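Sanity check. The docking grid for magnesium ion depends on where the pocket ends up, so I'm generating a full predicted complex first rather than guessing from homology. Inputs follow.
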Amino acid sequence: QAKLQGRNRHSYFTSDMQVAAQNRLQLTNELRVAIEEKQFSLVYQPIVELSTGFIHKAEALIRWQHPKRGAISPIEFIPIAEITGLIVEIGDWVFYEACNQVKCWRNILAHNFQISINKSPVQFTHKRQGFKEWFDFLRELDLPGESIVIEITEGLVLNADASIKNLLMKYSEANIGISLDDFGTGYSSLTYLKKYDIDYIKIDRSFISNISSGSEDLTLCETMIEMAHKLGIKVIAEGIETEEQLELLISAGCDYGQGYWFSKPLAPKEFENYFMKRNKNFIDSTH
Ligand code: C2E
Ligand code: MG
Ligand code: MG
Ligand code: MG
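Predicted complex below; grid placement will be based on this.
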């Protein structure tokens, strides 16, 4: 009896793992098709300058419209793309697409428009880091480096080897911005902040969601903002959902805000409409 149970449990366990492995294998194959069949698109979430309300930045976020399964979240497929290395090809596509968009928006929206793109650590450690290809593409479009910000994670800078350090330095030399995503969630060591030319930190949504007057999370946000400013780094708050959160962050001196309170990520045409509506009170004097 016990033996039978054991065997059943065992086979149940294996079949669970088989299902997971099959799912992953299927997603992997489908990701390959998705690249070829152009099932990806980018949406753009406004990043608002809190002192003025002006918008001249956005974060590009990938979307996958699967022909049968519908929309699949990047939270689901980016990890698989990372494991299989497909993230390199997908990441190149994201970069080229975002460059074309920022080229257009610098012409029709704001001359200093800037788009942030997420770059996975796997793209940095892959043998083809792709700096030359990306840089050539910027030149081809006649785009200055400051049109682009690369969002990286704390883990990358913490474990950076010489080749990653070198690549980050090349970005800085090319005036491509560097932003630390999900800041505050990973590590307590902050020495890397002065070792690299970091332009922005993005305070993680988990801090923003619980800030209220007098809360510990507000104290943490204030401290991160003060520290960043002393190091000459600008601060972006992620995931602002309420007016109260926004007011507290403005009082704390936060530079930029992003979140559903302003807007969810938008398709390009929707973004242009949102931009026109929000920015109509501003005369872009430098235009
Ligand atoms: P992330 O870079 O931290 O992006 C912010 C995520 O928070 C986005 O989710 C965005 O839609 C969501 N968000 C923004 N405002 C709010 C808010 O007020 N409340 C809540 N609850 N969520 C908000 P999304 O688009 O699902 O992307 C998830 C993650 O997938 C990203 O986190 C990023 O790590 C990754 N990702 C997305 N696009 C790319 C890409 O092109 N390349 C790479 N390597 N990773 C990407
Ligand atoms: Mg990001
Ligand atoms: Mg810089
Ligand atoms: Mg983030």
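Relevant for the grid: The longest strand covers residues 55-66.
Also worth noting: The radius of gyration is 21 Å.
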